[in-house]
Amino acid sequence: MDKFSFLNAAHTAFFAQLYDEYLINPDRVEPSWRAFFQGFDFGMESAGDGEVQVVYEDRGETKTVDVSEKMRKEFEVVQLIDGYRTRGHLFTKTNPVRERRKYEPTLELSNFGLSDADLNTEFESGELIGLGKTTLKNIVNHLKQVYCESIGVEYMYVRSPEQVKWIQSWLHRNNNHPEFDKSQKLQILKKLNEAVSFESFLHTKYVGQKRFSLEGNESLIPALDSLIENAADKGVNQFVLGMAHRGRLNVLSNIFGKPVSDIFSEFDGKDYEQDIFDGDVKYHLGYTSKRKTDNGNQININIVPNPSHLETVGAVVEGIARAKQDMHTPDDFSKVLPIVLHGDAAIAGQGVVYEVVQMAKLDAYKTAGTIHLVVNNQVGFTTNYLDARSSTYCTDIAKVTLSPVLHVNADDAEAVVHAMNFAFEYRMQFQSDVFIDLLGYRKYGHNEGDEPRFTQPQLYKAISKHENPRDIYADKLLKAGVIEENTVADLEKDYKDKLEDQLITSRKQENTVITPFMQDEWEGYETADEEMMMKVVKSGVKKKTLEEITKTISTLPKDENFIRKIKKIVESRQQMWDEDKLDWAMGEHLAYGSLMLEGYNVRMSGQDVERGTFSHRHAVVKSENHEHEFILHNFLDAEGKMEIYNSHLSEYGVVGFEYGYAMAQPETLTIWEAQFGDFSNGAQIMIDQYISAGEDKWKNQNGLVLLLPHGYEGQGAEHSSARMERYLQLCAKDNMWMANCTTPANMFHLLRRQMLVNYRKPLTVFTPKSLLRSPRAVSSIDEFVNGHFQEVIDVDGDAFAKAETLVFTSGKFYYDLLEYREEHDRNDVVLVRVEQLFPLPVEQIKEVIKKYGSKDVVWAQEEPRNMGAYSHLMLHMPETRTWRVCSRNMYAAPASGSSTRSKARQARVIEDVFNTNK
């Protein structure tokens, strides 16, 4: 008997369940049943009333199956349930100040083959939503409560049946409505009062000053409060939060416990207590707080400093969170919780959000799930949401990682807290991202001095008449008998009295005190000035230690097979040691290995860094048969470990992540390498806002290393220049190091110096390409053992004592000049390398000039005149303006696309250097 012949005699609930599973994930349903349900969905009308055509694709047959009216109705109810699950969020009451857009088709019964006549009919399909057999009326009412009130839920695109079932089970508890007890409701009211009263107090005391208030989204505060309390109860002890300016001061005060007296000092515009610190506007500053939750759990919470570039901070949050996970809870990432607050226009409009979201499941960057919370004002600066995105929701980026989204009416405080509880439990259960779209409004303009009615007159007419979330909630509690008439007034008076006391205290303080971010991680580190940065650091390593490292990284696991080329490359490391000629890769490897033996960790990421873009590094080797991965450095008997990861094709997001990682782990040598240095301009915002200025703005040290392949080898405009002029233009006082090394040993000492000093500065290295295998760019073992980093290299010696021309250059161009000098026997020209471009070693350069006394002093660079280091030299050493300059002409593009033209230009510059008759 055909399996469908008993369809109408069997228990309909079974088939309803089966059909429901088909709608959620067709591939999990047995093929013949899948064919039947496809027939029901697409062939009902053509086959006739009550009949379904089942197509057996595997044997090319079609069978007609009779379906009773009762069974057909059951399936239509299942479709109705599926309709609410997939489209219910479009018909919610989530917008507090204006009507929602209209969407078609609606969830009317007629769109599912049902009518009002069916409302009192009982259906087995009620079991799918936890009601058991019940009337269609009860089913519809339940679905509306779950999916169409203050919370709209998007999740049916999630492909994991386990996750879908978990979500559905959670939502159908209490009809997706909270059931808080009296104490919980009073806590929500308390935090709402703090949020509302804080803003009104500032609005009164600092009239017209920018504060980017939270008004219209104050329910964020009880939501964050609930999240932290619940998470701490479940074992989370570290929180890393990133957000832009909107509502930041409110969060700092009412969640992080930052003394409001400090906030008032910032409003009063007082100078900072330290002269060397320029600071930042009050709504960009970071803060770290150790506190106990109401249940007595000790937690560490961090709000990351951020620039005005809104979504930039998300990448930094993930890096800090991962660093804390690696450091404190490597076996349970869930104990560190990253939270990112977005703006609706920013999350929809800025590409870095996509770069960061793509990190969620990658080994290099995963953080066991992030809670993303959008403070949705329905407007970006003055731009209406319809002009700010093409997508239906600002949160549609969540679908990239199949993360559920909850859209919540910000006026319904309990619903907001309820949604946050869902988000946290989902994150902990599945180690996955989850998004909350907190749909509110912005009471004033972009800032408190702005006039929003210029661009949104109707919206702001509605907002002007709208009650705040606290008063809405208080009225609800009053009607329910939870609070008394004077409860809110008393709460507000007590809170504002405390603020008034803090204001008086603040006015007695002369200066603003900025608390450093993440003090614990940076305890014991010094603040360094330029003089400290120029001190010689002893970075040599004993020969025996280097020999041990070489042996380890020259030996492949014996029980694995590797391709012949890998064997040759790895074995050549020992050969280089034996021949006392160590290349660039060995310089790197020995630096990493020696630091690991001294207790430091090494972390590197970037595009293709495991082998290196130019196949020089091979820090990760893979077996031929099984592609088992091995980092040979980790076979050292070392306290430190090495982690190196190929990144996704991102610069902005990855550099932000690694900056955050380095901020939280100063004992780790954290490196980002660009595929080509030219591509680092994709991370320019991170470089401008964090790397170059973070210490000056926020008192944050950071030791991130950027390796940027640079050099003119005829590879075109996008594969020649790391645009060093841009980096050098950002250099000032003591903010970072810039280097353009020419020898493996100098690179070795540079990387070691980065960790051996008792402070941290960002380091950018313009690394070579052709020199990676050049027989000239090698170093002896003695240079690793006895040397230190040389800011200036002058090796020409007595043979050039009377040379008329003294040439200063940097990087790979030195070897081009050296080759020409040797070919033409030009001992009248001295070649000196400037290896450190910032801080510029001015005194050493002057000593070299004095030593040779040459009349013709030259700066030579392969970059065009308007690029490279020339303008930097003139800024930091004015006497260089009198030097003869040899370079390409000024160009808009860094290099020609023609290799022939590029070689000709290079040759002309070299000839110009040696044309001493000019």
Q: How are the SSEs ordered, and which strands pair?
A:
Layout: H1 12-24, H2 31-47, E1 51-56, E2 61-66, H3 69-87, E3 122-123, E4 134-135, H4 136-147, E5 151-154, H5 161-172, H6 182-205, H7 220-233, E6 238-242, H8 248-254, H9 260-267, E7 287-292, E8 298-303, H10 312-328, E9 336-343, H11 344-349, H12 352-357, E10 371-376, E11 379-380, E12 383-384, H13 385-388, E13 405-409, H14 413-430, E14 434-439, H15 457-464, H16 469-479, H17 487-507, H18 530-533, H19 543-553, H20 564-579, H21 584-597, E15 601-606, E16 620-622, E17 629-631, E18 642-646, H22 652-664, E19 668-673, H23 684-691, H24 694-698, E20 705-709, H25 724-729, E21 737-739, H26 744-756, E22 763-767, H27 781-786, E23 792-793, E24 805-809, H28 813-823, E25 829-834, E26 836-838, H29 842-852, E27 856-864, H30 870-876, E28 884-888, H31 899-914
Parallel strand pairs: 6-8, 6-9, 9-10, 10-14, 13-14, 15-18, 15-19, 19-20, 20-22, 21-22, 24-25, 24-27, 27-28
Antiparallel strand pairs: 1-2, 3-4, 5-13, 7-8, 11-12, 16-17, 21-26, 23-25
Helix pairs in contact: 1-3, 3-4, 6-7, 6-16, 6-17, 7-14, 9-17, 10-22, 19-20, 19-21, 21-26, 22-23
Give a verbal description of the structure.
Helix content is 39%, strand content 14%. The protein contains 31 helices and 28 strands. α1 (12-24) packs parallel to α3, α6 (182-205) crosses α7 (220-233) and α22 (652-664) runs parallel beside α23 (684-691). It is an alpha/beta fold and 918 residues long. Strands 5-13-14-10-9-6-8-7 form an 8-stranded mixed sheet. It has a 7-stranded mixed sheet with strand order 18-15-19-20-22-21-26, sandwiched between helices. A 5-stranded mixed sheet has the order 23-25-24-27-28, sandwiched between helices.
